Amino acid sequence: MQKRLRAWGMGLALAVAAAPAAAQQDTMSVRSPDGRNVIGIEPRDGRLFYRVSRDGQPVMLPSRLGFEFRGGDTLGALRVTGAARDSADETWTQPWGEVAHVRDHHNELRVHVAEAGGQARAFDLVLRAFDDGVAFRYELGERFGAFEMMEELTEFALADNARAWWIPGNQPEPDRQEILYSSSPVSRLDTVHTPLTLQYTNGTQVVIHEANLVDYAGMYLARTQNRVLRSTLARWADGVAVRGTAPFVTPWRTIQVADRPEDLAPSLLTLKLNPPSRIANTSWITPMKYNGVWWGMHINTETWGSGPTHGARTENVKRYMDFAAANGLGGTLVEGWNLGWDVDWFNTMQATFSFTQPYPDFDLPGLAAYARARGMTLIGHHETATKIENYERQLDSAMALYERVGVRAVKTGYVGDKTEHGHAHQSQYMVRHHRRVIETAARHGIMVNVHEPIKDTGERRTWPNMLSREGSRGMEYNAWGGEGGNPPEHETILFFTRMLAGPMDFTPGIFDLLIQRPTGTPRRPEDARPRTTLAKQLALYVVLYSPLQMAADLPENYADQPAFQFIRDVAVDWDTTVVLNGRIGDHVIVARKEKGQDEWFVGAITDEEARSFDVPLSFLPAGRRYVAEIYADGPGADWRDNPLPVTISRQDVDAGSTLRIEMAPGGGQAIRIRPAD
Fold this sequence. Notes:
By secondary structure, the chain is of the alpha+beta class. Among the domains are: 21-160 and 211-250, Beta-galactosidase, Chain A, domain 5; 492-677, TIM Barrel (Alpha-Beta Barrel), CATH 3.20.20. The protein has twelve helices and 37 strands. Strands 7, 8, 9, 10, 13, 14, 16, 17, 21 and 22 form a ten-stranded antiparallel β-sheet that branches. It has an eight-stranded antiparallel β-sheet with strand order 1-2-3-4-12-19-18-15. A hairpin with a 4-residue loop joins strand 18 and strand 19. The two termini are 33 Å apart.
């Protein structure tokens, strides 16, 4: 259903220098539909600043706007030449998502700005105010011509020394974001990735990010003063941040605002700031659960390269496919199928992968047909090692091959923090590349799941074949991470940080939590393993949203496991998402309603502390009876030395019921709520 209301305002001739301060504040700001959020601009001494408030309390103090071009060229003295107002109220249905319907209700102020002299360059600053935050972007006029931008001068001057949850964004730290989160006051930050989640001392929650990153450099945030963060951009190898020719539009800078952590998710602000779908018929885009030839390589029971334990052997892949088909999974991923894995490409970074030539023991067309006959798909894999030219030379033929044999999804990989020519992982060069991959895949009817990606900025609205991505420390670090694996708090932080950007392919579902390694390899206490209970592994399917969810463990580790029934049952596409309780780094409880079905799933996770909650089921429709199928931490469960016990029980419930959720240290609880028979 589409609803749209648009009210155009007259252009306002603003003589800024002569206007009284009160009049400037009124005419040069825009308020959200609910009246709580306000974003406005403030010219000062030839420079332009913006400010943000909520309920009359400052969120961002006056913060500078502008650019620096090659040769130290910055914008000259600026004046406001006019403005126009606009509003919109539109609701659209997503082909898939954490919610089925998204309402874009905002008010807009478009401010016309020009240099008072010199080159007389002009641009529009477009500001939008939503009930869940604010956003702004620059639209450069033709007088900018062809340009080389060295830096964007946009600041975020926080009104509070807020607590921040962050990962570093400055080299030599990994630019692909696979780092554990830290927490500190803003005044202790250096350079960090977005989304950056902040908690003000008055309890206000703020998230800084960006939306509609199309032909621009990814943004980091660098602290320049005590509580002032400034955008700094990923770079081409020669130091330039952005190359372009005006007219030119930047990404949106987004500031999500909420009263409580629970109100941060689902985060839909970036979706509202991306254009509608470019894919007219999205019926072929189907969320799914999948398994794959993957975890065995991480725990050294299989190999990517050829040899006696090569994972991508035809008969071995059929074994995985048979398991997937028998358990209602939609696909099987296979890594290591293509030539190029037999060199030490990771340490030497001398990868020369072929994306069309399989190893002799891998029957690509035969396995694709084998999958189709079982009502599922073979999921292809393209590891590039950030050798972008090698991949782009083969991209069209590789996607055409997958389309021809019937592979409907591909997982791409970009291990490496810079390209072969030294361009940054989040650079404009890579942003352009990822768009080319998404669009090429769409032409061939192929869904995309990106590992070591650029950040998610809501492009899934425009290209809904862009289903999921990694972009954080996922499950593989629990196989070999030097710290022994991700700490128990990790996923409770991800929910309020990384997950606010968009879906994440975290690859949950490890049942062999002590990781039985090859015979003759003794286990040491410090060896990496998932630092969760088994019940928490189940809960992650609900908590960490992705339209692609992997049953990541080896098929044999699911045999004779009653708890695997939850993975069979859990949905991957949702009508509604409700965060019932949560504190960043402590715990999360979230309920999601399966799309088109009268079933709900609840996931609850905790950090290293045991926690208990009484959870009202008031989100259920009144007057209906349901059965809650509960997968809880069993007696004595503890992530440290007893992670496996799971207690499975059933309870009759309705909208007036309250469920007791008890979680062991590092534990969780997973619940399916279905209509009573």
